[in-house]
Amino acid sequence: YSCAVTRSLNDMAMKLRDYAADGGRLLRYGINSTSAYAVYYIADEKLTVPEIMGPSVDILPLLHTLAAMAGNRELTIKMPSGPIPEGFDASIRPWGAMTALNAPALMKEICGNSHIAAEISDPVIPQNSGIFAFDGSPVSTAHIRLSAGRLMQLLSGYADVSALISQGHAELLLPAEHLFAEQLPPLPCFTVDEY
To answer: Which of 30, 56, 72, 117 could form a cystine bridge with 34, CB 3.0-4.6 A?
Structure first.
């Protein structure tokens, strides 16, 4: 889920001015103060929400309000995937992307010392292509073959190795599925998308 992980008050003010300059509007929820908010754009045929933030219990009233505001328009909300709140007819689709500028260094930073290795292909950043242990060192034998984008899903906790394999996005070359599951389980995935 691509979102603002942290913002100062000044950063938030600048971001809201940026949204407002493009026609974005702010919807807030809270009892005594704002506990959740959504930034949305409304057009003839769609209502788009590029940012929604707050505890799940406080986001729910925002979702109901946005759905009512959308009326017959298409409603698209960028938010973490998870259970769809009761009463909503919705589908979950991927939105946003991330990549590693230096896959071996990122593997070392996240995994440290590891006995598993991956054969990575990256048509955009050739230095990421090759066979690397998850400690970042080049090796000759890989346990799994996948693209740099799918590696990011694995490293960030967005997807686990069994999901990537079953969906045809990765190929297991040597038995090590349990090692991947132990070292890189799926987790709530957050990335920074500030500029």
So the answer is: 30
Report pLDDT digits (tens) over 39-49: 999 999 999 99
Integer CA distances (angstroms), 148 to 47, 120, 133, in order: 33, 6, 14
* Neighbouring C-alpha atoms within 13 Å toward the C-beta of 41: 16
Q: What does the alpha-carbon distance between residue 68 and residue 108 come to, in Å, rounded to a whole number? A: 47
Candidates 170, 190, 188; CA nearest to 180 is 170
Q: How do strand 36-42 and strand 25-29 relate by DSSP bridges?
A: antiparallel
Give the separation between CA 114 and CA 135, rounded to whole angstroms.
6
Q: Which two tokens stand for residue 11?
A: 């950063």
Q: Please enumerate in sequence order all residues whose Cβ is within 8 A of that of 145, keeping only pairs 6 or more positions apart, or say none.
A: 118, 119, 121, 170, 171, 173
146, 120 Cβ separation under 8 angstroms: yes
Structural contact between residues 55 and 62, judged by C-beta atoms closer than 8 angstroms? no
Separation of alpha carbons 9 and 70, rounded Å: 30
pTM of the model: 0.57
Q: By three-state DSSP, how is residue 176 classified?
A: coil
To 10 degrees, the CA torsion angle through 72, 78, 80, 84?
Answer: 0
**C-beta contacts of 169-173 below 8 A and 24+ residues apart:** 170/144, 170/145, 170/146, 171/144, 171/145, 171/146, 172/143, 172/144, 173/119, 173/142, 173/143, 173/144, 173/145
Over 90: is that where the pLDDT of 27 sits? Answer: yes
